[in-house]
Amino acid sequence: MNNDVLVIGAGITGIEAALLLAEAGKKVYLVEKTSMIGGNLVKYEEVFPNMECSTCMLAPKQQDLLQNANIELLTLATVESVDGTIGDYTAKIRVKAEYVSAVECIGCGACYEPCPVSVKNAFEENLTDRKAIFVPCPGALPNIPVIDAENCLRFAKGEECSLCQESCMFEAIDYTQEDRELELKVGAIIVATGFDMFEPSANPKFGGGKIDSVYTAMEFERLFASNGPTLGELTLRDGGTPNKIAIIYDVGKETIGYCPEICSMYPLKFSHYIGHKIENAEIINLYSELNLPGKSYQAFYRDTLKPNIAFNRYEDIEIEANGSGASVVYKLNGHEEKITADMVILAPTLVPREGTSELAKLLGIELTQSGFMLSERESLSPVTTSKKGIYVAGCVEGPKDIASSVEQASAAVSKVMSEIDEVT
User: Fold this and answer.
1) Are residues 113 and 63 part of one domain?
2) Is this structure's pTM higher than 0.70?
3) Together in a domain, 328 and 247
4) Quick check: helix, strand or coil at residue 85?
5) Same domain, 149 and 288
């Protein structure tokens, strides 16, 4: 029987679970499919309802994790199979080659500029470009670049390019690295792989991804972020400053069939954002319904109510191009209204992370009708699953805010400590 624990996903939920387990003396394997830790929270400048600095919240936990001897972090890693039962699980993990030595690299960034390749940076929502050797954003941890083999001239096209290696005075670039396959023996597994957002760009109703003045919520987050592509300046794609902004709530609800409470909260944050940067900007919030449970959420909404900020309900909505801006046509009770805006922000609902169904199948646990991992919530245990020894925490179990995700991480760790100690 084994006391070690596998945590899948290194967002805020996975980080919290790993730190709590390590503090309790457990050996933790933390598996993250990207090259950095922190998840979606890294993309935010501030978080509701208190508009706290997300970096101030996250960075100390990231540093604690990286320095904790009980935690083995595996980035660019995916779970390929899981067999066994509580106290005796075997997990096979595939770890992609980074082609950069974590021991030799000091994170100076001298290797970026010489790289001749330039591709869109998915972390920055394709608002900017990156090199084939890169870190996703300034301040990413671990601060060690990786080589994107799919776009690198050496690996993708067989060319004899070694410019990044030649620029590194510490000899940290290692083209001979290969993917690794690990077999881990653990007693329990916590799944904390987080969420994605509904993708509205292909829908003609929302501009079909062809109107430059239309932005998704994550694009807007990166525009506001001080480590983002515009260093926090709220500028349009043409370089102008928006003075009239429409924020559309509940995007994708009619397609997906649900609208969780958090989907009303995070667009409210955008009005605060805009007020920080553009004084007296006209802001129109367009919602199909507002879900504001709890006293802190209600207070946050009341703080948003200002003369330059409007809230209008809609039953149907459509966006059309209008010169350098956009027109938003919305209907309510058979009555149609049309407004023009310099910027339109789409606030989609949260959906299961890509790969959630495949991972659930590997683990042998069920999904909800909406595609999230199924917990035994009806039996008052929101972190346990039908597979004993496998627990879920955070948005992999369903949309929730940061505080609730961290609370669920703590609950999952409590279950691990009680149930694993019982069988071992």
Assistant:
1) no
2) yes
3) yes
4) strand
5) no
